[in-house]
Specification:
Length: about 375
């Protein structure tokens, strides 16, 4: 019959081809829906994302984004890291720019309530990030600020957030001696030493152990009761605003859950952000491994950073080493250690979780 009716044969062939096309389109649609479902699952469960994507920890890595945000925590090796970023960028002939925004004041007059420069500060960042995206200029934006949720302030979503952390007790001691003895501007160090001695009512600049003991004595004289150490929201040694539990503050950000950093809500928010919003979290105590893992996590940006580090650090060592009057003063007494551990209990819990994430990420990437 088909031979007698060629039009019928052509019609059947057309019908078969059309069916194949529709089936292909349908399968493509189903695949895209599956991909969307995977992406949704990824954001909810970062552990699944690590397993599926190996060296990529966050779902924000897209080709269209040109900004990496490094909201560096004080005394966690960030000065050395920035130096290496700049050296690497120079080697790659300005492959990316390093924007170290030292003069943008994000700290607040009252805990987590905007100061008068708030809008101006965000607008300046917005100009930088929008310009980078529009002109396809790669930048690493760096600032000493808690987690800046760009989406919440109508800024373009960055390609990735990255961070490096340090043992909270070690970081706190280093910060104390850095603020008093540098290396930094002599005038600022003099002001810090004067403020500390005035508040603790002592004529000489105390060691960390002595400062905590004097603070306990001052409390007991004022309140007539024994000093009870607990998680604190205040600058316990009068040297840096919002100094306690700084790791938790930097991962928590400006969400309302973070108003009281000692609450379970603040801790959970910080851990959630670390797991779901950061593509990379390194450990300062394992700096070489951190650089290797950063290179494998974001190779388009940081390929070659381990070689750069080997060359640069062999020449000059770390970019900034905190000076101590006496290195033995960094060894805490048992009593002082118990107090500081209670003050920083949020950070200690968070640091343990971040180390687990780091080890998981390192193993998945095959970094030794």
């Amino acid at each position: 019959k088909l031979q007698r009716n060629p039009w019928a044969m052509r019609y059947n062939m057309f019908h078969v081809c059309l069916t194949l096309v529709l089936l292909t389109a349908s399968s493509d649609t189903m695949l895209s829906k599956q991909e969307a479902t995977v992406q949704a699952e990824v954001f909810r469960d970062p552990e699944q994302f690590i397993e599926k994507q190996s060296c990529v920890r966050a779902p924000t890595l897209t080709k269209e984004k040109y900004t990496i945000v490094y909201n560096r925590i004080p005394k966690c090796g960030s000065t050395t890291t920035i130096t290496l970023f700049r050296k690497l960028s120079k080697r790659k002939k300005r492959f990316f720019s390093v924007v170290n925004a030292k003069n943008v004041d994000f700290w607040l007059k009252e805990p987590f309530k905007p100061n008068t420069n708030w809008s101006d500060a965000w607008n300046r960042i917005k100009d930088i990030v929008v310009d980078a995206d529009q002109n396809q200029k790669r930048i690493v934006y760096i600032n000493h600020i808690p987690f800046p949720d760009f989406e919440n302030y109508n800024l373009p979503t960055p390609k990735a957030y990255i961070q490096v952390v340090r043992d909270p007790i070690s970081r706190t001691i280093s910060d104390y001696y850095y603020l008093l003895w540098g290396p930094r501007q002599e005038k600022k160090m003099e002001m810090a030493r004067h403020r500390l001695k005035a508040n603790l009512k002592t004529n000489s600049t105390p060691s960390f152990n002595e400062a905590v003991a004097l603070l306990q004595k001052k409390y007991e004289q004022k309140h007539g009761s024994k000093f009870e150490a607990d998680c604190t929201n205040f600058d316990f040694l009068f040297l840096r605003a919002n100094k306690t539990n700084l790791l938790t503050r930097y991962f928590c950000g400006y969400h309302e859950d973070c108003n009281d950093i000692c609450t379970e809500q603040a801790y959970n928010r910080a851990l959630l952000n670390a797991k779901t919003r950061y593509a990379f979290v390194g450990i300062m105590e394992e700096f070489n491994t951190t650089l290797k893992l950063l290179e494998k996590s974001l190779p388009d940006w940081f390929e070659g950073i381990t070689d750069t580090a080997a060359e640069e650090l062999s020449k000059s060592g770390p970019a900034r080493i905190t000076k101590h009057k006496n290195p033995k003063e960094t060894e805490l007494t048992d009593d002082v250690l118990k107090v500081v551990q209670m003050w920083h209990r949020q950070d200690i819990k968070l640091y343990k979780e971040l180390k687990v994430l780091f080890e998981h990420h390192r193993n998945e990437c095959g970094v030794s």
